[in-house]
């Protein structure tokens, strides 16, 4: 009987530990991020080799590229930060990738005209979700930024750090100096010196933002 009581107490302690741990590891919410949400270990990504920095799984990520890894959570519709719907219904700050592949057709002066999906916007590269390199705009207009490098992490630091500081706590409104309670960058945007997503080093800082007292995101 004593053994059974001990086992029950031990199990409760383990569950409590993991419950607390799950809260502390909430992604993009401060605290310790959950590595396993984006990364896999020990050559476990579908049996594919993790060897090589530039090969499949070179960063031990669960997607074949950076944006595919992001879309493992941010794909679809509904509530939350989804950016790749099937109907263009998401109205988030970053838009909806749906519009980058949709062909628009309309009538102009009695003639039906179309704008093919690859002819407008800039394609986000996320091969696992059918998002391919822009074949029309191979570089950013007016610049040399390679279209093949355009993905979520081109602008967003997935680790949410401000110059290698602590994890982000919350998004907020523009124009206020951050306090010690607000660590991290607005919308996880890369700061001066950030180059992890594309190899192009940022020369300008991120917008100044402060977390709203309610915890809700404000633009």
Describe the protein.
This protein has a domain at 156-219. The chain is globular and about 60 Å long. It is 16% helix and 7% strand. The protein starts with a helix and ends in an 8-residue tail after the last strand. The longest helix has 23 residues, at 2-24. Residues 2-26, 162-170, 172-183 and 215-219 have low confidence and may be disordered. It is of the alpha+beta class.
What is the count of β-strands? 4
- Low-confidence runs (pLDDT<50, min 5 residues)? 2-26, 162-170, 172-183, 215-219
Report mean pLDDT, rounded to a whole number: 67
Specify Rg, calculated over alpha carbons: 21 Å
- The neighbouring-strand order within the major sheet is 1-2
Helices and strands, in order, run as HHEEHEE
- What level of helicity do the residues show? 10-25%
**DSSP strand (E) fraction?**
5-15%
User: How many helices?
Assistant: 3
| C-alpha end-to-end distance | 59 Å
- Could you say which overall geometry the principal axes of the C-alpha atoms support? globular
Largest sheet: 2 strands, antiparallel
Q: Helix/strand/pairing class, anyone?
A: alpha+beta
């Amino acid at each position: 009987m004593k053994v059974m009581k001990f086992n029950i107490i031990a199990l409760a302690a383990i569950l409590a530990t993991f419950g607390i741990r799950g809260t502390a590891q909430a992604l993009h919410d401060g605290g310790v991020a959950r590595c396993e949400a984006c990364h896999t270990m020990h050559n476990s990504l579908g049996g594919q080799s993790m060897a090589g920095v530039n090969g499949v799984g070179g960063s031990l990520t669960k997607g074949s590229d950076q944006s595919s890894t992001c879309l493992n959570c941010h794909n679809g519709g509904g509530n939350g930060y989804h950016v790749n719907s099937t109907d263009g219904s998401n109205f988030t700050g970053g838009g909806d990738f749906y519009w980058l592949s949709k062909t628009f057709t309309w009538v102009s002066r009695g003639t039906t005209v179309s704008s093919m999906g690859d002819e407008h916007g800039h394609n986000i590269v996320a091969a696992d979700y059918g998002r391919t390199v822009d074949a029309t705009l191979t570089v950013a207009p007016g610049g040399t930024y390679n279209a093949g490098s355009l993905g979520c992490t081109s602008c967003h630091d997935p680790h949410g750090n401000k110059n290698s500081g602590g994890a982000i706590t919350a998004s907020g409104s523009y124009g206020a100096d951050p306090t010690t309670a607000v660590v991290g960058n607005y919308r996880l945007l890369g700061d001066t010196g950030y180059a992890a997503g594309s190899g192009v080093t940022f020369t300008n800082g991120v917008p100044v933002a402060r977390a709203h007292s309610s915890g809700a995101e404000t633009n």
